[in-house]
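ok so i was messing around last nite and threw this chain in just to see what happens. nothing serious, just curious
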Amino acid sequence: MPYVAGFVTPVPTANKESYVAHAAKAADLFRGLGATRMVEAWGDDVPDGKLNDLKKAVQLKSDESVLFSWIEYPDAATGKAAGEKLMNDPRAEEMMKDMPFDGSRMIYASFDSILEQGSGGKPGYVDGFVVAVPQGKKDAYCAMAEKAAGMFEKHGALRVVENWGEDVPEGKVTDYNRATLREDGEQVVYSWIEWPDKSTRDTAWEKIMADPDMQAGKDMPFDGKRMMWGGFVPVLDETLG
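result:
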């Protein structure tokens, strides 16, 4: 299963084209560092939450859109080595000088994959999720995620990936810990579902939410009130390795 660098980023909506061009340059950089895939997905259906949400996570402004993005590596050693190389790569330093977004409000972390299911393919739509899960309930969360992944795949999902926080740094302005209202003894989980298109996704969710076996119960292994999620349209999906 992959090692994942996961990002949530606020981007001025007017800068969409320049952001995609910027991301394409970054993909060439990560290709040389051993990454296998890079996906940038533009916010389409990102709801407000009562306690927190993906927009609050990055202090989104009225003229901005939120992006859910990730980079996949074949293993943790490759991903960690890539991070170290980036720190000394002049190309990365040059790209940071002209970013079409406020990098201080981008949140990022590295994750170990705990579930990967599905045949894959180029998705036309992505559901992204971020939640804090008690470390003592990791096994229960994995069991729940495996059950849910089977249901998603049954209803047309191409791929489901669940990732457990491995390196979740604190940020100066915001970060995953603050965004999820993480408590002591919890870890951040970053997950996504890849769908062929939005129509398939919408139809699937209607059926899943009506299925008695998928109803959230009192034994859910995390605080659902603090889960953040949204629907996103891929604007860049590069196979790198």
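not much to say yet. The mean pLDDT is 95.
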